[in-house]
Design a protein that fits this description.
Elements lengths: L31 H12 L18 E5 L3 H8 L5 E4 L4 H6 L7 E4 L5 E6 H12 L7 H30 L7 H36 L7 E8 L5 E7 L23 E8 L2 E9 L3 H11 L6 H12 L3 E3 L1 H5 L3 H12 L27 E5 L2
Antiparallel strand pairs: 1-4, 2-3, 5-8, 5-10, 6-7, 6-9, 7-8
Helix pairs in contact: 1-5, 4-5, 5-6, 8-10
Protein name: SEC-C domain-containing protein
Pfam family, one: SEC-C
Organism: Pseudoalteromonas amylolytica
Length: 372
């Protein structure tokens, strides 16, 4: 490949070749320390994801906001030392575990936190779920949804930063390796930018509802139990396949907006809840939910375990419950955790399909719907 020094660089950066990839293979490679430094800086970004209409109320203090209630939910499933099991997703930890993500002990003060709200708005927006018993009204379901969407936006924007870092991390590599890394990052950014656009549009709808500018057009499914759920999670996903292995939507087609499902599993006043929330017009998500509702209630907790660990990273587990699992059950969960780690692999169609490995420890008492 021959390119003139003053021609546009082949990587589509817009820069001249002499100011971009010319001689890149002879440059000093990015060190492990630089990569770790980027990871730490990226995870320490401070923002408040409140509506633009409320920005003037922001305090100067951005806090470690919990996406899962510390007092009501994490403390409920923590061990005597106030630790839960969760994933420590950082470059140093991935290096230490040789590329594997495994459940490790995390203190409840650190679990599920992100620097995504100021102290004023973290209190104002989520008091309805932090300070009173969960009854499953629309205000509480909206608050759960809002927090999950903000956390996912924060994560996706962080992924975009990391993708940009990757573009500059091809120093000291052969031209072929440089081309592969640049193409990989470019393809990744297409998907990330599409996800950010969709999440921003969903958040805009939630902002309007919070501000009373529009009536609710959201649907919620609430699964209840008389005892705490041993797994706590707060996340959002665009489901690809359902619990029967049927294809729900093709996320590879970026010309079509993906339909999103928000889900939370938590405890409140000694009771356990799983709440699914989505836009009422999202027919594909409804099809996914109906595949869950078709499962026998006695097997639904096992289906939820497959779902939580198979599609969400922001998942935390009771050490006591984990200690009751067999090696086969733990192996299944660890396999589910790794199912979405390799970006070069597609999600298996049977990810959520029953495979004979069952889980116990939470009995479902009732299932309710709002605006279904």
């Amino acid at each position: 490949m021959k390119i003139g020094r003053n021609e546009k660089c082949w990587c589509n950066s817009g820069k001249k070749f002499k100011h971009c990839h010319y001689g890149r293979e002879t440059e000093q490679p990015v060190s492990k320390g630089e990569a770790i430094g980027h990871t730490k800086k990226n995870s320490s970004r401070k923002l408040c994801y409140v509506s633009a209409d409320l920005k003037h109320e922001c305090s100067n203090k951005i806090i470690n906001a919990h996406t899962i209630s510390k007092s009501g939910s994490l403390k409920e499933i923590a061990d005597e030392s106030n630790h839960v099991l969760g994933l420590k997703i950082s470059l140093p930890n991935i290096i230490k575990n040789k590329g594997k993500l495994i459940p490790e002990k995390i203190g409840i003060n650190q679990a599920s936190t992100f620097k995504g709200f100021c102290s004023t708005h973290d209190k104002a927006l989520f008091a309805c779920i932090e300070d009173r018993e969960f009854v499953g009204d629309e205000e509480q379901c909206l608050a759960l949804m809002y927090r999950s969407v903000a956390k996912e936006l924060y994560a996706k924007e962080g992924m975009l930063n990391t993708s940009e870092f990757l573009k500059g991390a091809d120093k000291g590599r052969s031209t072929l390796e440089q081309m592969f890394m640049q193409q990989f990052a470019a393809d990744q950014q297409l998907g990330i930018n599409a996800a950010i656009k969709e999440l921003s549009e969903l958040k805009s709808k939630l902002d309007k509802q919070l501000l009373g500018k529009c009536s609710g057009n959201l649907t919620h499914l609430i699964i209840k139990s008389s005892k705490p759920v041993p797994v706590a999670v707060s996340s959002i996903v665009s489901p690809i396949s359902d619990f029967a292995g049927n294809l729900i939507q093709d996320l590879g087609d970026l010309s079509v907006d993906a339909q999103q499902l928000v889900f939370n599993a938590f405890s409140s006043d000694g009771k356990g809840y799983v709440v699914f929330s989505w836009a009422k017009e999202s027919q594909k998500v409804l099809d996914f939910i109906n595949s869950l509702l078709a499962i026998d209630k006695n097997k639904m907790f096992s289906a939820l375990i497959r779902f939580f660990f198979g599609v969400a990273e922001n998942t935390f587990t009771s050490p006591l419950w984990w200690g009751t699992l067999t090696n086969e059950q733990k192996g299944k969960i660890e396999k589910l955790i790794m199912s979405g780690v390799n970006p070069m692999e597609f999600e298996p169609k049977d990810l959520l399909v029953e495979d004979g490995i069952e889980f116990s420890g939470w009995e479902i008492a009732s299932i309710e719907t709002i605006n279904f």
